[in-house]
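Task: complex structure prediction.
Instruction: return structure tokens for all chains below.
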Amino acid sequence: MSVNKPRGNTQRAKGEEGVRPGFHLSLDWDSIFSSPKSTLAWGIFFLMTGIILEVSFLSYIVTGLADQSVVDAFGQESIRDAGRQTRNFLGVVGATFSHIFVYRWFGVGALLLPIVPILAGWKIAFGKELLPLTRATKEVVFYILWVSALMGYIVLMSNTENTLSFVSGGIGYMINVWLFDWLKWGSILPIIFALFVFAVYFYDAKNLLDKWQTKPEKEEEPEIAVAGNPATIVTEEQGTDVESKPEPVKEIEYVSVVNDTYDDDVVPETEESKEEEEPVIQNNSHVLEVINKEEVSKLAVTPVITPFVATQVNGSNVDVELELEVADALTPKDAVEIPDDEDVNASILREFGQYDPMLDLPSYQFPTYNLLSDVIDNQHEKVTQEELESNKTKIVETLGSYGINISKIKATIGPTVTLYEIIPEAGVRISKIKNLEGDIALSLAALGIRIIAPMPGRGTIGIEVPNKNRETVFIRSVLMNERFQKSTYDLPIVLGKTISNEIHIADLAKMPHLLMAGATGQGKSVGLNVILASLIYKKHPAELKFVLVDPKKVELTLFNKLERHFLAKLPNADEAIITDTKKVIFTLNSLCIEMDSRYDLLKEAAVRNLKEYNAKFAQRRLNPEKGHRFLPYIVLVIDELADLMMTAGKEVETPIARLAQLARAVGIHLVVATQRPSVKVITGLIKANFPARLSFRVTSSIDSRTILDMGGAEQLVGQGDMLLAINSEVIRLQCPFIDTREIEDVCEFIGGQRGYDEAYALPEYEGDEGSESRSEVNTDDFDGLLPEAARLIVTHQQGSTSLIQRKMKLGYNRAGRIMDQLELIGVVGPFTGSKARDVMFHDLNGVDDHMRSMGISG
Ligand SMILES: Nc1ncnc2c1ncn2[C@@H]1O[C@H](COP(=O)(O)OP(=O)(O)OP(=O)(O)O)[C@@H](O)[C@H]1O
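Output:
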């Protein structure tokens, strides 16, 4: 727990010189407080402390004076003797504690003190709050002092200091002695005033009073209380407040992510708005004041938020009626039309705290690292001195034989390759070295030479030579890496180890999509699994959903177990992992609908991206009654694009391109892998929208150029050796290795936990039934020129009615009818306004086959 860290630091600061440093390093406060056993032990410790204090205090109240002499004599006689004499139920310890807390300090008010350790202990031990801890602690502190002061007044006024001073304790008595000098008997007034101020601020007494005043004549008054009961009374008793609600989250390691997701400055904003909105709801004169302050929009709080309250309190609509009355008194129209981005319902926020999606699955446990194999990589020396020397000599000799002299050479040993950086003598042209790439490779007799001339930002020329013994980078080591664990990215993914053995972590949310290519067996599937595992280890199921498309049918099936935690699927779909091309088309279109509806929500909330939207939702500034909901990130993973493009062409390309173009801001990100990085698969449209591209080894430099816009990927050495190109930067990385068994264990670990009732539901795609019934379309009514028009449209790749009109010399009406029929049979997309319709086929054979399958010929 982060709260404990300072303790470790303080210790270090104080006793650094005197204590061996190793001692401090071995104290892992995090694990002391976070392991289940120690949490239970600490919880019970606090519980016991609370109980001991309470028993001691109660006992002292009964036997206090008798024990006072024992406590006073403490230190002058043996503990044993003192123990025998004391009458406290808990002996000398009980008597001493009570003497200090009751007699010296707080009097009977001290009886409240043990509530704090008891609540804290319960929370630590059992992970649940009996009452909200923060709020209860504040109350306890206030009442201890207040009761002490009140008792002090009574004792002082009744002149019973000698017999009853323990009732008020020293503090309460002294307060009254001081007040008495000023106010005589009137010193009770500040004491009562303190209670009043506390009640106003802490229980929002003014709000309650206002509520009571605005509808005194209403018979429904008691009903409101009843309707509000389940939520209101519970919260009042429990005293839920903004700070206390998110506390359970802190107990899971997750807190850093939560903090990142929601900006810190959110809280003060909420606090302010709390204060300002309350008058608006209830009192006309306050409303006018607010208008003067140009905070008109806050009026919208009234009608918009109340239905939300109503739902929260068992669907009662009493509050709704009340609030509409107030709004009518002003300008109801204005009030309704004001956008709801100012809809901050302070009372809901105060009562329920910030919305925390993770509380849907409060007991969710993140997968542990021991599910991953802890093989320590080959301990033997990876690259020997001889290997380095011999490569160096060969490089120097080869270049020398072409008249290129080197002034300096430096080697960096990476997991898969060693980078030799050379500085040629002055006057040598870089292109000359680049041209000798093949010759150098030949003379080094090694596969996978890659020459980087010049190394960006280094002023050198790099030659990467594969190591004889390569290192496997195991997933466990990278996921346990501190940089990954502390990463604050929204969607952190580990991509691999760089040549200088650093872990390369990227934020998929910023990428914002990733295109992967690689010939068969070069590590694509392992790479995809690594990406999925990174996200699973960092994200709570409430924050992230996967849409998994696996046309190969075998690669992603293991993730099936995550269905009720991390997967999203179409309603009525049997399997969450999509293997069928037709279903892929539906899913992609459904994702487009999800994207559009998310955009609508963002627009209505007047925010620019998903993060801002969710933060606003968490602050309860968006009304679920209006369709607002917490939006998890969605990551669409397609394991084999080539397959889909070959079978469905435009039908797949168009939605993918649309998602890639637009979905970033609404938290939908794509990871698309393909074996064949040909231009037919990675079309210009797709490529243009995937700025981040990753290539494992490919078979030709043409493929490398298609995916990376540069050669080099054909020179990689396989088994996860890869090049990552983001914008114009290219990095060579070794992908971590994750085994099928490890994936299986992780998925089983998560799948075995309580999940959601079902997978995250994607919106229904209406084309669903439409396309199913395409084969049942009555083709008899179709225009005889339909096949010809279809070919014309496909040839020109332009879905326009005027094209049919011009080329086929038809009237507008007939051409229009034909266009509608083309849409019906799925050759063109729906009408999109002024733009031409999308053409769903890109070759004549495809469209002919399609028409034949529908019984249309000609
Ligand atoms: N990062 C890695 N580290 C070590 N070995 C790896 C790594 N990635 C892949 N391999 C090895 O390569 C083999 C093939 O990997 P993978 O199944 O990921 O290839 P692929 O590109 O998905 O092939 P295909 O397209 O045929 O499914 C793995 O079984 C593993 O032995």
